[in-house]
Amino acid sequence: MEQSSTSALLQGTVLDLASDVVSALRSGDHVRAGGTLTGGGAGEGVARAAVRVLGADTLLPTALLRVPPDPGQLAVFKDAVAAHPPRDDAAPAVVWSHWAMARALRRLEQPLTDPLADDPGAEPGAGWLDDAGWQLLTHQLAVLAPLALPGEECAVTRAARRRPVDVARGFVRAVRRRDWQQAAGAGRWLTLLDGVPDSLGLEAGLDFVRLMGGSDPRVALQLEAARLMPAGVLL
Amino acid sequence: MSVREVEETALEWVWAHRDRFALGDDALAADGQVNRTWKPLGELAQVCASVSACTPPSDPVHTRVSDLLDFAWQQTRQGELFLLMQSLEPFATYPLEVYAAFASAGRRHTGYEASAAVVARTRGWRLTEQYPTRRLGVIEAERRSGLSPHGRVPQALGRTWLGGLPEPWTFERAAGYALTHVVFHLTEWGRAAQGVPPDLADYLRHWLPPWLDTCLEARMWDLSCELLAVAASVPSPPDPAVLDDAWQRVAAAQHTSGAIPEEGAVQDAAGSADGAAPYAFTDCYHSTLMAAFAAALTTARLRDVDRAGQGVPG
Amino acid sequence: MPSKDKVLEEVRTENIDIEAALDPAEPDGVFRDSRECAALALQSGGTSLLLSPPTPRPKKG
Predict the structure, then answer these.
(1) Of B172, B174, B214, which has the smallest distance from its Cβ to C29's Cβ?
(2) Neighbours of A24 (CB within 10 A)
(3) Which chains touch B (3 or more CB pairs under 8 A)?
């Protein structure tokens, strides 16, 4: 009971946070992105956990629109990275989403100072993606959608670039299963990949996912990212 | 369980239940159920014709499907019933479509072909309103029966769902059945991969895997088997891993009698009543035929690839 | 000194299974096909019924 109500609180906060990001991406107004974090609605711990779950996309308006982050929001983001390091036995997606957050800070020239880390920029391995069938590949890439950014260069983006047809198949599968979150995440990756078959109809596909699942702010976030992607130029 | 075992046990079931494909009096009755008489017999004939064509004469499976074809041809009284149907329902297309399956296996009736040609020359026949996929099937049936096709394949193909290269994520059951039949018609039911134009071949190579995967997840065994038949009929078959996974899932759905239920709901309805025949004939005959058809094409394909020395695992 | 609420909240946060949220399993697929009803004003499948006499009703009493 305690656990489930807390999980529900976390889930709700993640959705609020995603809504903030969507608003910011749509309006170009970065301040609104901080609403949930700076408004004092959620408790500190829950807010931090929610930022960790939404991951690097919490700072997506900063990355795609190149506006400076809100200082309060940035502070919570740094706290979230520090407070929720991956466990030793963490799944690769968990390790990578943490890496993506640290990467986002490095982009802002706000690297974490962790005296224990030998090389804070060192990449985790991505061998699990090379071994994965197209279904698992797409699922994992959708979970790691915050890494789908123009100009991003890491083992995960390289794995995605090697298998555009497989990711496109995963998109078809996700739409067929009505898994809108996975479809939106895969769709965001596809906007970045060369070699996606034209017959996929990606643009209409993204519109369809918005129509069917866009009321979920986590879905809307991925679709907004996909919309801004071609114009976005990162470092 | 191997693809070959799925094929053999499915054909065992068909052989054991061949009397259920027999034509009774209602096949000719005005109020008879065509979908319960001519349709199953035509499907039996078509599957046996295809399996026979892709199996070496020395293979026991070849003997089994030849015997089934003889049985089915006897049901039509060596083609006489087609002539009779022609006089009863001159503008129906289904007798010609069923006949074409027999004709493709060398069972022909010249009197029927001559009388069918008279009707097929009319504007009314050419203008019969029907789904684009069905139109393609009738054009092919005319060709296989020695008649002049009433239209051209590229034009008919262009009107179908598959021919228009739709966004693959718009696939649903009805589109799936339409596309499998388009491929069956284009390839003469698995005999001629070159009948698939290159753009369609690319399209199918890209999108068969997610369609197959989701149909199997939805336990749509019948459509899954049809998609597997398509996969074995196109110029470039899917990755062996995709096929292995799919065939394992189909094999797991096959009852020990060899029957494969149409879909998961049929299995749920049968529950744990795991007798010798848990499914009604109408709930499993088509999917069982399609499994045998797809398995035979897959086996033949793997054999050809092996012979070509490319060493794809079976 | 932190308030009691604050302490409680921290304890709760630690209990959250954040790993599950970070690497979620796929939800079950949802499959339902779009249907089509017969074209409007097309002859009903029960046309012949309209031509037959009405089914006799049992008389009351």
Answers:
(1) B214
(2) 24
(3) A, C
Predicted confidence (pLDDT) per residue in C2-60, tens digit: 455 554 455 455 556 788 899 999 999 999 999 988 888 777 655 444 455 455 555 54
Cβ contacts of A87 on chain C, cutoff 8 Å: 19
Phi-psi region of A178 (alpha: psi -120 to 50; beta: other; left: phi over 0): left
Domain segments of chain A: what residues? 1-112+120-124, 126-235
Integer Cα distance of B96 and B141 in angstroms: 6
| Rounded distance between C-alpha atoms, residue B256 and residue B258, angstroms | 5
Q: Give kind and range of the element (H or E) at residue A183.
A: helix A180-190
Of the candidates A52, A178, A179, the beta carbon closest to that of C18 is on A52
Min Cα distance A199 → chain C (Å) is: 22
